[in-house]
Here is the input.
Amino acid sequence: MATSISVSEETRNSLVAMKMSEGFSSIEELLQRMIVERKRNKLLEASKKFRSRIDGKSMGVKDLVG
Amino acid sequence: MMFVIDANVLFSALDDMDSNAGRLLLKAISGDVKLYSTEHVMVEMLDILVRKLDYSEDDVDEAVKALPVEWVDSEVYAYELKAAKGILKDEYDASLFACAALLGCDVLTGDKAVLAAMFRDVKVLKLKDAL
Here is the structure.
């Protein structure tokens, strides 16, 4: 079900410009893509931190769950 | 597709996002698969991150929030867990089967003991068989 959110005119204009320049068919589609990208980046950050810790301990995944 | 996933899959993904496990999590973010796991798995993961990798409370919170997993509260699968514990001695392993039986989906794991176990009509798959 569609609903509405309130944003400033400046934000609205930025979203519309981004939608057009990047070829999205709707603001909804643009926002969905931005959400996916944000989640992906958070996961990659978490992976980077995990790798840094596990390397620092000279361990492997098998050492964690074994 | 829906799966209940084990901690070893989540750790493998965090270790290498280009691995099968990593690709599975990226598929979940895109909405191509739905991933669930149990409160038992979460508790185990958090304990390992803190005890073995010196994660702080904030680090743990960030890691859990970053994972595209819906965590199922133990109260939700408590009834099935009782039955699963009659077959699988390990409560942690039993939680995976209890949750999968309840949700009607398969279990994904790299653990040999879990792969060899059976409970109701739950299928247990290796990552390579699921992708």
Observations:
- The two ends of chain B are 10 Å apart (CA to CA).
- The beta strands of chain B are 2-5, 34-38, 70-72, 106-108, 124-125.
